[in-house]
Design goal:
Layout: E1 3-5, H1 17-26, H2 32-53, E2 58-60, H3 68-75, H4 91-99, E3 109-111, E4 118-120, H5 138-146, E5 151-156, H6 158-164, H7 177-194, E6 198-202, H8 212-225, E7 232-235, H9 245-249, E8 255-259, H10 266-273, E9 279-285, H11 295-308, E10 314-318, H12 337-340, H13 346-362, H14 368-383, H15 390-401, H16 410-421, H17 438-448, H18 454-475, H19 492-495, E11 499-502, E12 509-512, E13 515-517, E14 521-527, H20 534-542, E15 549-553, H21 555-560, E16 563-564, H22 570-590, E17 595-599, H23 611-629, E18 637-642, H24 651-657, E19 661-664, H25 672-679, E20 685-688, H26 701-714, H27 733-753
Parallel strand pairs: 1-10, 2-5, 5-6, 6-7, 7-8, 8-9, 9-10, 14-16, 15-17, 17-18, 18-19, 19-20
Antiparallel strand pairs: 3-4, 11-14, 12-13
Helix pairs in contact: 1-2, 11-13, 15-22, 17-18, 22-23, 23-24, 26-27
The structure holds glutamine and zinc ion.
Zinc ion binds near residues 431, 601 and 643.
C-alpha cells in the first residue's frame, strides 16, 4: 500500500512546553520525573496528531531532550572520556555533555547541514567503543506501540553519525565503523522483534561531496544491518542524490526516500535505477519552509512517478523532518488572513501529506475540496498586489547587471578615512549590542503590548543609549556604538520595518536545546518605506564627539535567518534586501555617520552543501553585500562582522566584500583563524575578537596580552583593531565593563610600545 508519512515532527511543543520544562529542570524547579512526564505527553500528542491526520506511520526516535544526534550518542554510549561519565549515560550525563560542566566545556555545537538547527558534535578517537543503551530509545518505542500506533523508528544512519563526529586529524573515523555497527545490530534485531513497521535511517551526508571510501561503506553497512532489521527506509535529504542512483539501488534496503523539494530533478535518475519491488518515498511537502504545498504540482510529480513505479511501492512524505517549521498555523490569529492562507506549519503539513496520498490513490475527485481551496489560495498568492512591487523589480533589474564596487581602492580609502576619523593605532571598539537590561526589555514588551506610548518607549531607549555612550566614554573606547537597545533581534528588528516581511506570533523553531528562534517571513518584494536606524543612530552621535558606528544587519543574514518566499529565486530576494539596506546606509552617511557596520554572521552558513554550487552563491552573496555597502564616499568606513564559523574556505569571497574593517570571532580558536587571514594576505583592516563574550568569565590581562601579541605577529599594527568577538547583549554591565576596561588598557599599553 502507498503509505503517507513524515520524516520527523517538531519536538518542542506548540506552546514550547519542552523549552519551559527543560529550563525549569536545569534551574532545579522540575525534577526528572516531572520533565519526563512533559516529554511523554508531547510525544503522545504528536503521535496522535500524525495518526489523526491519516498518516500510516508515526515517527518514534525524533524526540530528543536536546538534540537527536546527541540522543544517538547516548544510545550508543559514545560519551567522550573527558566527561568522566559512567558507561551508561543517564539524563544528567546527557545534559552535562550538552551544556558543559565546571571542569569540561560542552560538546561543540554545529549547524545541521544548511539549516539553522544545531546538533551536538560527537567526539571520537581510536579508543572510542560503543554499547547499546536501550533506555535511550526502547521505552519510547514501547510507549508508541502500546498506544496502538504503527511505528517507524527514526535513527541517524551510522555513516552520518560518524561523519559528523570530530576526531583527531590523523585518525580515520571509518576504522570505527564496524564497532559502531554492533549496537545498531543488536538494536535493530530488538526493534524487529517488537514489531516495528519500519526503520528510517537519516543519511543526509549523501547530499554532500562524499569521498569514495565513505560511499563504498554504504554497501557493507546496509548488508550487515538489513538481514536483522525491520524494513529499512534510507532517507536522503537536503539535496539530490542522482549521482548515486546506481549505487543506492544496489543496497539491500527496503526503501529509499528522496527530498524532491531540494532536488526535484533527481526523480528521473532514481526511477531509472530503483527496483520496482522496493519502496520509493517521495518527499514533496516542504519540511524546510512554511509555504502551503501546491497540491496539484505535487500530485503531478507523484503521478509521473506512478507511471514508472508500482503505486503500492510509492510512499508520500515530507521532504525532511518537520523540525524546521513551526508547530501549528492555527495559533497565528494576528497574521493577515490573506497571508495565513498561503502557509502551512507542521500540523497542516501532516494533512497535506495525507491528502496527497488520497489524491494519488483515489483521484482528484476524492480531494476536490482540498484542491479547490489550495488553488484559490495559490492563485490569490500569485496575483496578490502585496507580493509584487514594480518599482522594486525595475530597480533590481537595473542594478543587477552592474558590478557594485567602491569608487577607490582600499589604500586610498584608508588614507581618507584616517584623515576623517582621526583614530589612534589599534583602535578599540565593540561589535554593536550592549547589555539588554531588565528596564530595556520591560519597556520593549510594554510598548509592544501597548501598555506605554511611543514617547515613553523612546524615552527609555534614549536613556539606555545615553547610558551606553557615557559608559563607553568612561572606558575610553575609540569608536562608539549606540548599543542596540531597541532591537529584540538583529533580523526581526529590520523585518518589522521592511515591506515584504511578516512576523508570526508563535512561529518558533528549535535552534538548539531549549533555544528557539522565530524567523521573520519574507513573502513579498522587499523595500524600505522609511529609515530604520537613523533616529537612534543620530541621537547617539549627538551625544559624543567620537565617531559613532551605525549598525545594520546585512542582506545575506536577513535572508538566511528568515523563511524566504519560494516563488522568486533567493538571489533575487538578496538583491532586493541589498537595495533596501543600501538606502539605509546612504541615509546614515548623509546624517554624518562616518562608520557603518553591516553584520553578516550568516554568510558562511548560506554556502550550498555541494562544492559545485558554491561559486554561484558566493558570487551573488558578495554582490548583494557590495551593493549594500558600496554607495558611500571613500571617507566613510564600512565595517562588517562575522562570527560562528570557519571562513578559511571562502576567504577570497570575504576579501571580495571589500569592507574596510572586518571583525571576526577568533578568541575561542585562540586566533587560529587569524593565521588563515594572514596566509591569504587579507588586504583590509581586521579586528580579531580578543575575548569570548559567550561566557561571563572575565578574560585575564595576560590572556588579552597574549592574544593581541599573537595578532600583531601576523597582522601589521596599522591594520589591526581591538574588540570583543561578538555583541554584548547577553552579558550584564559589570562583567562587560570589567572586560572592556582590560581590553582598552591592553590596547593602550601596546600602542605605547609600538
Ligand atoms: N551587531 C550585532 C550585535 O552586536 C552582531 C550580532 C552577531 O554577530 N550575531 O549583537
Ligand atoms: Zn557575532
Amino acid at each position: 500500500m502507498t503509505q503517507a508519512h513524515i520524516l520527523g515532527f517538531p519536538r518542542i511543543g506548540a506552546q514550547r512546553e519542552l523549552k519551559t520544562a527543560l529550563e525549569a529542570h536545569w534551574q532545579g524547579r522540575l525534577d526528572e520525573t516531572g520533565l519526563r512526564a512533559v516529554g511523554a505527553q508531547l510525544r503522545r500528542e504528536h503521535w496522535q496528531q500524525q495518526r489523526d491526520a491519516g498518516l500510516d506511520l508515526v515517527c518514534v526516535g525524533d524526540f530528543a531532550w536536546y538534540d537527536h544526534l546527541h540522543n544517538a550518542t547516548a544510545l550508543f554510549s559514545a560519551a567522550p572520556t573527558r566527561f568522566g561519565l559512567p558507561r551508561s549515560i543517564d539524563l544528567a550525563g546527557y545534559f552535562a555533555m550538552a551544556r558543559g560542566t565546571e571542569a569540561q566545556p560542552a560538546l561543540a555545537m554545529k549547524k545541521w547541514f544548511d539549516t539553522n538547527y544545531h546538533y551536538l558534535q560527537p567526539e571520537v578517537d581510536e579508543s572510542t567503543r560503543f554499547a547499546l543503551n536501550r533506555d535511550w530509545l526502547l521505552p519510547e518505542v514501547r510507549e508508541a506501540l502500546s498506544l496502538g500506533h504503527a511505528v517507524k523508528v527514526v535513527l541517524p544512519g551510522p555513516l552520518t553519525w560518524l561523519w559528523l563526529a570530530s576526531a583527531p586529524t590523523a585518525f580515520d573515523k571509518l576504522s570505527l565503523l564496524s564497532l559502531l555497527l554492533n549496537p545498531y545490530f543488536v538494536l535493530l534485531a530488538e526493534l524487529n522483534a517488537l514489531g516495528v513497521a519500519s526503520v528510517q535511517f537519516d543519511e543526509p551526508i549523501l547530499a554532500l561531496d562524499l569521498p569514495d571510501a565513505w560511499l563504498d561503506a554504504y554497501r557493507s553497512v546496509y548488508r550487515e544491518l538489513a538481514p536483522v532489521a525491520p524494513p529499512i527506509l534510507l532517507a536522503t535529504l537536503f539535496g539530490s542524490v542522482a549521482e548515486h542512483a546506481a549505487r543506492l539501488s544496489e543496497l539491500p534496503i527496503a526503501g529509499l526516500h528522496l527530498d524532491l523539494v531540494r532536488g526535484p530533478d533527481q526523480l528521473d535518475a532514481l526511477l531509472d535505477h530503483w527496483p520496482a519491488q522496493r519502496v520509493l518515498s517521495l518527499g514533496v511537502v516542504d519540511g524546510r519552509n512554511l509555504w502551503r504545498c501546491d497540491l496539484r504540482a505535487a500530485l503531478a510529480t507523484l503521478r509521473r512517478a506512478a507511471q514508472r513505479h508500482p503505486l503500492d511501492r510509492l510512499w508520500i512524505g515530507s521532504s525532511c523532518s518537520l523540525l524546521h517549521v513551526p508547530h501549528d498555523l492555527r495559533q497565528e490569529q494576528e497574521l493577515a488572513p490573506e497571508l495565513r492562507d498561503w502557509m502551512a506549519f507542521a500540523t497542516q503539513k501532516l494533512d497535506e501529506v495525507a491528502t496527497l496520498r488520497r489524491g494519488l490513490i483515489h483521484g482528484d475527485a476524492a480531494i476536490a475540496d482540498a484542491l479547490n481551496d489550495t488553488d484559490r489560495a495559490l492563485d490569490q498568492r500569485r496575483r496578490a498586489a502585496t507580493t509584487h512591487c514594480a518599482e522594486v523589480r525595475e530597480r533590481c533589474a537595473r542594478s543587477g547587471e552592474r558590478r557594485a564596487g567602491r569608487a577607490s581602492a582600499f589604500a586610498q580609502r584608508a588614507a581618507k578615512q584616517r584623515a576623517a576619523l582621526n583614530l589612534p593605532l589599534l583602535p578599540t571598539t565593540t561589535i554593536g549590542s550592549f547589555p539588554q537590561t531588565a528596564p530595556i526589555r520591560a519597556a520593549r514588551a510594554a510598548y509592544r503590548q501597548q501598555r506605554i506610548d511611543r514617547a515613553a518607549y523612546e524615552a527609555t531607549m534614549q536613556h539606555a543609549i545615553r547610558d551606553a555612550i557615557e559608559r563607553q566614554h568612561a572606558l575610553g573606547l575609540d569608536v562608539l556604538v549606540h548599543g542596540e537597545a531597541e532591537r529584540n533581534d538583529m533580523v526581526e528588528y529590520f523585518g518589522e520595518q521592511l515591506s515584504g516581511f511578516a512576523l508570526t506570533a508563535h512561529g518558533w523553531v528549535q535552534s538548539y536545546g531549549s533555544r528557539c528562534v522565530k524567523p521573520p517571513v519574507i513573502y513579498g518584494d522587499v523595500s524600505r518605506p522609511a529609515p530604520m536606524t537613523l533616529q537612534w543612530t543620530r541621537y547617539a552621535q549627538s551625544l559624543t564627539d567620537k565617531p559613532l558606528k551605525g549598525m545594520l544587519t546585512g542582506p545575506i543574514t536577513m535572508l538566511c535567518w528568515s523563511f524566504v518566499r519560494d516563488d522568486v529565486p533567493r538571489h533575487e530576494v538578496a538583491l532586493q534586501l541589498a537595495l533596501a539596506l543600501r538606502d539605509e546606509v546612504q541615509d546614515l552617511e548623509q546624517a554624518g555617520i562616518g562608520i557603518i557596520q553591516i553584520d553578516e554572521p550568516a554568510i558562511r552558513e548560506g554556502l550550498p552543501l555541494k562544492q559545485a554550487d558554491r561559486a554561484a552563491y558566493l558570487d551573488w552573496a558578495v554582490h548583494a553585500f557590495r551593493l549594500t555597502s558600496c554607495g558611500v564616499d571613500d571617507a566613510t568606513q564600512i565595517h562588517t562582522h562575522m562570527c560562528y564559523s570557519e571562513f578559511r574556505d571562502i576567504l577570497p569571497a570575504i576579501a571580495a566584500l571589500d569592507a574596510d574593517v572586518i571583525t571576526i570571532e577568533t578568541s575561542r580558536s585562540r586566533m587560529a583563524l587569524l593565521d588563515a587571514f594572514a596566509e591569504f594576505a587579507y588586504p583590509n583592516d581586521i579586528g580579531p575578537g580578543l575575548y569570548d563574550i559567550h561566557s561571563p568569565r572575565l578574560p585575564s590581562p595576560d590572556e588579552l596580552h597574549a592574544l593581541l601579541r599573537r595578532a600583531l605577529d601576523v597582522i601589521p599594527a596599522e591594520r589591526l583593531w581591538v574588540n570583543p568577538d561578538c555583541g554584548l547583549k547577553t552579558r550584564a554591565w559589570p562583567e562587560t565593563e570589567a572586560a572592556l576596561q582590560r581590553m582598552v588598557s591592553i590596547a593602550a599599553q601596546w600602542r605605547r610600545q609600538l
